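About this split. The held-out portion is used to measure sequence recovery: a designer receives only the structure tokens and must propose an amino acid at every position. Recovery is the fraction of positions where the proposal matches the reference. Here is one held-out target exactly as it appears in the evaluation file.
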């Protein structure tokens, strides 16, 4: 029986699904303290997202330590233990190739906080109020 042709849409769904499986595997490994590393044992690390390459050979994991403390130290510890984490993820996520992991700090929370602080600025609030009043009058 022939395999159905893979469309870009189905391929992207597969990439997203595998990325989510890798994220769950990494989160589970880190939550259970399976990595024998002092730094990782002291910090709770959240894996916020994993982006897979289209060929599923590379995975970029975005991580954030609890409260954002010691981010650089945690990233260094994760990068030091990459080989172990790759082998564990490969064992748990059944794909043809073991994805090469890359760890980056998740900056989305910082960006969200920055935007929130900008919106709370009195000058911006005044402009937003003025625009809303103009919309109601018009």
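Reference sequence for scoring:
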């Amino acid at each position: 029986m022939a395999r159905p042709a893979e469309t870009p849409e189905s391929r992207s769904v597969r990439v997203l699904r595998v990325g989510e499986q890798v994220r769950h595997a990494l989160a589970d490994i880190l939550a259970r303290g399976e990595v024998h590393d002092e730094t990782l044992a002291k910090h709770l690390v959240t894996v916020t997202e994993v982006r897979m390459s289209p060929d599923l050979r590379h995975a970029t994991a975005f991580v954030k330590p609890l409260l954002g403390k010691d981010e650089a130290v945690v990233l260094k510890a994760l990068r030091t233990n990459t080989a172990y984490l790759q082998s564990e993820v490969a064992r748990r996520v059944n794909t043809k190739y073991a994805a090469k992991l890359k760890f980056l700090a998740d900056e989305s929370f910082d960006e969200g906080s920055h935007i929130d602080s900008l919106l709370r600025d009195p000058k911006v609030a005044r402009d937003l109020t003025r625009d809303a009043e103009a919309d109601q009058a018009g």
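Annotator remark: The helical segments are 8-31, 38-42, 71-80, 82-92, 108-120, 122-137.
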